């Protein structure tokens, strides 16, 4: 227990880095995932094909392999970055985007097709139909799976700890070495700080879900 | 109730064919609708009348033949198609009001987003339209709070807000409780009197008699008869139409 208290500054630093990794990757993944979902339902066959291919590859590949690819293969292909954090963000967001794309797509499919037909009938373009009519109504069904994906993202960010990024899990490993006799407490401390992010996310889901309810 | 002779066809379908897999749903359809004309399409269910109606603004694609609105051939996809659709009002069987928008927003959305009309102007015009169809006081509500008949009248107002050249009605009263059918038909009859070009797929023979210039009878994907309501209801030529009418009139 006192090891945890003595290490609070490290925990706090790791917590902030995990939060940073998750927020940045989460935002990128939301944008890319929504774009992929839009491509998947677009009238252009090539876009649909690309989106499907991307999603299948990204979500069926173990995250660790995607991390290896981002941290080791990308630099050899000429994509240079200063810190491993950038590789972590690339890996996390490209992996998570695939899951978000699937969640958004199922949300889009949950909106009755008549809504899109009515919108097209008054002359809206594909992007307008999606942006003004379909996505706003899809939000309600998408929020719960989306929050699940974001919670998974927060926990997945711990893989970055194995790739020389000092985030919560990275500090956890370091501290377990420093306090070999109190490993259990150290790890419980790590878990606690993860909960500090994931539990509020779940509460947020409840709140937003009620806020965007649509009567039919 | 005679066919107006002025001008070329506003809506013209030439040799239109469509298949759903093995099923040949539209068989070599030729139909010309002049400006100001009210054409009622009737026929047994599965005869392809809804498909025909939906093909006119390309909610259904066709396999061959061509469809032109006001002389312009229907574009395949993209911006051009969107522009053309803005000129073709569509009213659906299931209303399809935007569930997350208020009644007023349902009507103003098209003018504001598609025609780039200023919000103030769009609101004013939308209110006038809602008053005209008798639901002005419902403007701030959401669609789910309105009855079916009210929702369908809002849907008509939404289509009219785009100032369309032609209005398509795909069984507009089929999903309504009997007591609400007339309030919708009254709006449509008024619209017909004002000279709107209309293509109406319906089972309401009363509407066909009262407001139609022409009745098009479809069966098995084909146009079997194309006549004035007088002619069609008193003296149908084909056995198919006679059979259809006899079934209706026995009730």
Automatic annotation (TrEMBL), chain B:
Superkingdom of this protein's organism: Bacteria
Membrane topology: Peripheral membrane protein
Statement: the UniProt record of this protein carries the keyword Nucleotidyltransferase: no
Subcellular location as annotated: Cell membrane
InterPro entries reported for this sequence: AAA+_ATPase (IPR003593), ABC_ATPase_HisP-typ (IPR030679), ABC_transporter-like_ATP-bd (IPR003439), ABC_transporter-like_CS (IPR017871), MetN_ABC_transporter-like (IPR050086), P-loop_NTPase (IPR027417)
Pfam families linked: ABC_tran
EC class (word): translocase
Main location: membrane
Membrane found in the keyword field: yes
Cellular component terms per the entry's GO annotation: plasma membrane
Enzyme Commission (EC) number: 7.4.2.1
Keywords: Amino-acid transport, ATP-binding, Cell membrane, Membrane, Nucleotide-binding, Transport
Molecular function in Gene Ontology: ATP binding; ATP hydrolysis activity; ATPase-coupled polar amino acid-transporter activity
ABC transporter domain ranges (all copies): 11-245
Reactions listed under catalytic activity: a polar amino acid(out) + ATP + H2O = a polar amino acid(in) + ADP + phosphate + H(+)
Membership in a protein family: Belongs to the ABC transporter superfamily.
Protein name, as recorded: ABC-type polar-amino-acid transporter
Organism: Paenarthrobacter aurescens
Lineage: Bacteria, Bacillati, Actinomycetota, Actinomycetes, Micrococcales
